């Protein structure tokens, strides 16, 4: 054959990232995210300059929320990229776990930033520097306006799902208790305060209020220590808000079964085991593939005289109502079970190549029946 002295070099990591970025940027839906990302970088630059000029660690802690907002926009961009990509031989289940990883990384980085603020605040308590309030309120309202505007203008599907599915933070619980008291006095406010408040909006407003109190106390009494106290409060609120979401996304990355669907899965498996021709359901494994997406695999042993395609259709019809990506393996019953020693398999036994596998793409129950096929032996 032909000898190639110089092989074509593979594309570098930077080249691959640039190619995928161009793929996302070609979609008009991502233009708004890119615009907000550029404005976010400008805001972060101004806020960091004002943090340096005011010497306020509370404003620095609040600026970290704007940096987290940049990670949130990046996660939204990854979500659009995931929707464009199709499953590949390497990623047979698709790319949904990338957006889970993006949410996990963003929340963990926000918590690390909060820990850094706590460490710096502990050092400031020993020697409290003077705080200049010239740009303190300006930075507060610039950060608050941009965070709320970008959060309410862009539908961030991954963070919207996680904020609803994760457990409530201590800040949400305290605000909910306060809201019940207020709504008991003024019932008309129940439609605004009683539903579960968005944790990101809540922490933005709470941080801005802490900075306003800081500004007033420094202007009135030159009480500089309140800046450090506000920084600690913002850091604790940030950590408490991000922790439940990082725990939830971490469990998804660990491929655990969501607790709220275990009972439903047990019920469906019991129904499958009672189907005509089914002898045993074994090796069932279900896990969360992405946000709101459940994947699973199950082995079904059937009678030798049973119709594989018919049993396959009934099994997938029952399970696909809950499991969107499903793999079913059908095994016919073996009359003679060999021992675990090195005894040759009988001719009437089915080895691994005789099973039927049906990977189910995400679809409705009605569509699933029409797409049922089996892999020939």
What do these coordinates show?
The chain has 377 residues and is an alpha+beta fold. The radius of gyration is 28 Å and the shape is elongated. It folds into two domains: 13-253, no CATH class; 259-370, Alpha-Beta Plaits. It has helices at residues 13-25, 29-54, 57-84, 96-126, 136-153, 157-165, 170-185, 190-193, 199-221, 225-253, 259-273, 308-319, 365-370, and strands at 278-290, 293-302, 325-332, 356-360. The chain has a four-stranded mixed β-sheet with strand order 1-2-3-4.
Q: Which percent range describes the beta-strand content?
A: 5-15%
Fraction of residues in H or I helices:
55-70%
Query: Which strand order spans the largest sheet, edge to edge or round the barrel?
Result: 1-2-3-4
Could you say how many structural domains there are in total?
2
DSSP, total strands: 4
Structural class: alpha+beta
**End-to-end distance:** 36 Å
The oligomeric state is: single chain
Shape: elongated
H and E string: HHHHHHHHHHHEEHEEH
The DSSP helix count reads 13
**Main sheet record:** 4 strands, mixed
Uncertain segments are 338-377
Radius of gyration: 28 Å
Mean pLDDT over the residues: 80
Layout of secondary structure:
Elements: H1 13-25, H2 29-54, H3 57-84, H4 96-126, H5 136-153, H6 157-165, H7 170-185, H8 190-193, H9 199-221, H10 225-253, H11 259-273, E1 278-290, E2 293-302, H12 308-319, E3 325-332, E4 356-360, H13 365-370
Parallel strand pairs: 2-3
Antiparallel strand pairs: 1-2, 3-4
